[in-house]
Amino acid sequence: MKLKEILLTLGVVSAMTPSLYAQEAAILFEAKCAACHTTTRPSDRSTLVAPPVMGVMRHVKMTYSSKEEAVKFVIEYALNPQESKAVCMPQKIKHFGLMPSQKGNVTKEELQTIASWMYDNFPPKGFHGMDKGQGKSCKGK
Ligand code: HEC
User: Could you tell me if the CB of 50 is within 6 A of ligand 1?
Assistant: First the structure.
């Protein structure tokens, strides 16, 4: 390959990096979290085993205003879920049971990627909750 072609290829690769990152994050989420947390609005909620990701992130963002804090919370919760740490939805824990720790299933580095992606992509614009008024059960809100 000529030098010019190599440089062109490198240019293309670096231009693709942000979307590759998002793609990697989406794949990680799919592999590690999506078995329980769906990324689409469910048509049949009775089949759910955990709250969908847009609901989770809506509540996380209601409690943690900065991305840094929100990401930190998600990482910690995934590794060490505790009822006292949950940002909201006590009725969710009653309904689904406490989330099992994902320690051993996912690394902290992977969680950093996943949590950042969750923050950037959820809830989607225009999403205002599954049920009206559920946000009121959030701690301190
Ligand atoms: C085996 C099923 C299962 C898997 C896998 C799973 N979760 Fe959960 N998750 C739950 C359930 C059930 C809840 C609701 C109960 C609770 O909050 O503990 C929940 C709740 C959450 C919450 C909200 C905590 C709160 O404040 O109420 C976050 C954040 C979360 N999960 C992140 C993740 C991430 C990130 C992954 C992937 C690394 C993941 N979960 C994988 C079952 C799961």
Answer: yes
